[in-house]
Amino acid sequence: MPLMALSGALAMRAHRPGHAWVFLQYLLGFRRLGWDVLFLDHVPGPVRSRALEGMAGWLRTVMSAAGLDDCWSLSLPESQHMGLSRSEVASRLRAAELLINVNGFLRDHELLDAVPRRVFLDVDPGFVQMWRDLRLADVLSGHDYFVTVGSRVGEEGCSVPTVGLRWIHTRPPVVLERWPMAPGAPRGPFGSIATWRGPFGPLKYRGSTYGLRVHEFRRFLSLPRVAGVPFELVLDIDPDDERDRTALKKYGWHITPSTLVPDLETYQRYISTSKAELCVAKSMYVRTRSGWFSDRSACYLATGRPVLAQDTGFSESLPTGEGLLSFESMDSAAAGVRAIEADLALHGRVARSIAEEYFDSDVVLTELLKRLDGAPDS
Hints:
The protein is an alpha/beta fold. It is 37% helix and 19% strand.
């Protein structure tokens, strides 16, 4: 069987199951297509031993829950490893056909050079391209192919710079057998699971400032009052943002700490019991018209839960109106809420059908492999 290696930062984001699923969709999806898989992670030092134990334990738990016990390696400070050893990783990589490097996380050139096809997978369109153009950071070098979930990167009207590279478009894959249609009527409210700021800061680029989710969300603070329905956020928010937390509560948002959704099972259960998702995107995705679409929203769709998502340009390549609804303003967001409430069963059925047609990992990853095979080396 061919081997696909995937690299990304999972251990350092312990107990963030949504983030873990980004990687699992690819690992399990490629395995469904008949590939062997290998996940590569590392923790740069120095890190306190207790924190390191927690990171490693989280990675081990995630891989075990997915049936991938012998398919991962975590490199630690001082040349230590957990899971597969460095020599075992190097041996496997020499036999690999493909390495997918999520956001360029793997920077070990000895390991990168061992694989004949190195794919940079961009899941945060706009940031890495602007960093390179501004000479702030270059995580793109050392790769042969460049893939992005931004469906409009390189297209007219998208302000994400291509930095002279040919970008291949893809969608977030969902392994549908792991995300079945949820039975029965939903018990939960509208809402989502979100990080208020995330790991990247706002960027100034060519006279504009491209911000984060917080900067867009503030525009929709009064949505619960305008729409007249309850909303819930499972939110990872810093104590320094207490003013924003207070404002959310004032306008009728129920805030649940992200620590109450700490593992894969709880995360899936929360999504499957929700009425629908409200997805407010990062300002970077919205202002650049990148076409970004949330991997979490794809999971909602798969479980038959409708998605009301802020339009980043994805509406040009995905069907909207039933199951998946887009909004740009407060009025269109409130209208979307009312439309979903009017026929929740219909929107649920269409949501699942959209997932089957556009996000099924079998379809998405097969198409990605075809595009890689047909793409010239960059």
